Amino acid sequence: MGTRTLTADTTAEAYLELLKDRGIDVFLGNAGTDFASLVEAFARFEAEGRAAPRPLLVPHEFVAVSMAHGYYAAGGKPAAVMVHVNVGTGNASTAIITAARANVPVLMSAGRTPVTEEGLPGARDLHIHWAQESFDQAAMLREYVKWDYELRTPVQLESVVDRALELMLAEPRGPVYLTLPREVLATSPGAMTITSPARRHSRSERFPDPARIEEAARLLARAEHPVVLVSAAGIDPRAVTGLVALAEAGGLGVIEADPIYMNFPHGHDLHLGYNQSGTTNPSLAEADALLVIEADVPWYPALQKPRPDAPVIHLGADPFFSRYPMRSYLCDVPIAATPGAALPLLAEAVRRHTDRSDVRRRSERIAAEHRARRAAWEQTALRQADKATIGFAWASRCIGEVLDEETVVVNEYPLDRRLAAFDRPGSYFASPHSSGLGFGLGAALGVKLARPQAAVIATVGDGAYFFGQPLSCLFTQRAHGLPVLTVIFNNQQWEAVKSGALAVHPKGVAKDRNRFPLSELTPSPRFEEMAKTVDGHGERVERPGDLPAALKRGLAAVREGRPAVLNVLCQRAVS
Ligand SMILES: Cc1ncc(C[n+]2csc(CCOP(=O)(O)OP(=O)(O)O)c2C)c(N)n1
Questions:
Q1: Theoretical Cys-Cys bridge with 387: which of 133, 233, 535, 574, CB 3.0 to 4.6 Å?
Q2: CA distances from 422 to 247, 302, 400, 483 (A)
């Protein structure tokens, strides 16, 4: 059992050495006066060539946490984020909600205003030190983090950091919040010996209840139209392989329900398409057995429910979504398990229970449906090719055409998965369902940080672009060498807000007069010009025929290391 002695002058130095020892390589910071000893510590590590997490300044907290999110989703490693006291925590909070709902671990930390008014190193010396004190700073995030704590003394440093990491990584994962008072960071920790490597591991697969696997396999095997609905299993590539094996073992059709990852290859014959943004997949109506995998909203009950006699199986690390206040999907067979571990077992059981000729019959029928649906989607896109205005379907198809082995897309709403084929695990990330707008731009930078070789494309609406703190993102792209191609689907409105009004008031005055106050984003800015502020490449694209070449130019710019922004003037439906 190894130990290591830290040679740190301050607790800040010891903290960073400890993080590095525990495998935290990235420290995304949005600093204030609470960072005094961390700034000094990073300077020292640099001067002395000592190992520490890489510090990256990110000029907005929301972007920093979104980056940590993308970094974990694409690379499987958590990052540390630190922000300035209560005000920085406030700015970060939307992204913490998103990480919590997506079970993404983030070591979230913040300074605390100095406690002492005089007398100690680090005591209060600015007006903010009084006004930025909170009674309970962590209260702001407590509903969305798995644990919060304050480091009160360096004596506890190792125990506190290890507790944070252990809970953040225990299933289901999620963000934790640690506050670090300025005086504590500034004090000398004295001689400090830590356990190294750490002995507080909490990564542990959850294997399924064998009886439930058998029960599920029997139900799926005897159904004539068994259907899988999946949203978020694909963060683990093993789950994708397991799902392919399962679908092939039983002749199961797979629907991706508002997918936030690539869960099942789009081109696979058993892919039955998507259930996206308040729409219904036609296969839901005929399903006579349903397997829901890591899907909080597998269908929209107000639009269409499965047949009442169809048994429903839910599989996931937490198939009950315990942190959601209300959720009422029927569940005949719960399987609480890590999909990457459970799916191969379920595939094996389904293979045992299913008659080969049944599998062939179902698979052939689904494959024919798959081909027919794909052909219809393709027609929708092609019909938009020679319109005066770019349509969302055409724009999505053009993006689909530039995808290769190196490309990764982070999609905040507009890209239509039906028209851009993702077949590789880890090639697609979308906004988690809590949908704190603006996620996509920062998450794309995190993906690029985790996968420097990838060509990363962020697809966002003009609304999402505003929310994503675009100038902070462009700064971060240039400052830290993380160039990304941002494609703005600019429909000059918040269409989601307009559609919401129409859905609730289908015969209202807004519809009658075609006036939707609080949803119009006009006059639209020249977003493409923003790229120039960081020596990037910017273009405005208005005609369908111009988009393919513009995308190629944008990708060429990012391959040269320059941020690129395409401002694509388009509409969802074009006539
Ligand atoms: C932080 C936050 N504020 C507000 C919303 C509500 N909201 C959901 S979608 C949307 C509009 C998004 O606009 P855009 O990205 O242009 O896409 P469009 O709706 O036009 O397709 C808004 C304001 C939200 N989800 N998150």
A1: 574
A2: 18, 29, 8, 22
Residue 307 has which token pair? 């047949």
Residue whose token pair is 């995308």: 551
Q: Residue 293 has what DSSP assignment?
A: E
Q: What are phi and psi of 376, to 5 degrees?
A: -65, -40
In SS3 terms, 502-530 reads as HHHCCCCHHHHHCCCCCCECCCCCCHHHH
Q: Which amino acid is at 225?
A: H
Amino acid symbol at 473:
C
Q: Which ligand 1 atom sits closest to the C-alpha of 493?
A: 20
Q: Which atom of ligand 1 is nearest to the CA of 460?
A: 15
**Cα 6 to Cα 13: distance, rounded to the nearest angstrom:** 9
3-state SS assignment for residue 413: coil
Gap between the Cα atoms of 309 and 287, Å rounded: 10
Dihedrals φ, ψ of 83, to 5°?
-130, 170
Kindly report the protein residue whose alpha carbon is nearest to atom 21 of ligand 1: 495
Ligand 1 centroid–CA 464 distance in Å is 6
Expressed in angstroms and rounded, the spacing between residue 412 Cα and the centre of ligand 1 is 10
Q: Which residues sit with their C-beta closer than 6 Å to ligand 1?
A: 94, 413-414, 435-437, 461-464, 467, 491, 493-497
Give the Cα separation of 17 and 517 in Å (integer): 53
E strand map for 58-132: 80-83, 107-112
CB neighbour class for 302 (10 Å; exposed up to 12, middle 13-18, buried from 19): exposed
CB within 8 Å of 226: residues ≥ 6 apart: 219, 220, 250, 251, 252, 253, 287, 288, 289, 290, 291, 362
Q: How far is residue 575's CA from residue 300's CA, in Å, rounded to a whole number? A: 29
- String of DSSP letters for 127-147: THHHHT--S-GGGGTGGG-S-
Residue 458 and residue 486 in contact, taking contact as beta carbons nearer than 8 Å: yes
Burial status of residue 547 (CB atoms within 10 A of its CB: 0-12, 13-18, 19 or more): buried
From first to last of its 575 residues, the chain has per-residue pLDDT tens of: 799 999 899 999 999 999 999 999 999 999 998 899 999 999 999 999 999 999 999 999 999 999 999 999 999 999 999 999 999 999 999 999 999 999 999 999 999 998 889 998 778 999 999 999 999 999 999 999 999 999 999 999 999 999 999 999 999 999 999 999 999 999 999 999 999 999 999 989 999 999 999 999 999 999 999 999 999 999 999 999 999 999 999 999 999 999 999 999 999 999 999 998 778 899 999 999 999 999 999 999 998 999 999 999 999 999 999 999 999 999 999 999 999 999 999 999 999 999 999 999 999 999 999 999 999 999 999 999 999 999 999 999 999 999 999 999 999 989 999 999 999 999 999 999 999 999 999 999 999 999 999 999 999 999 999 999 999 999 999 999 999 999 999 999 999 999 999 999 999 999 999 999 999 999 999 999 999 999 999 999 999 999 999 999 999 999 999 999 999 999 999 98
Q: Which of 495, 493, 500 is nearest to 521 (CA)?
A: 493
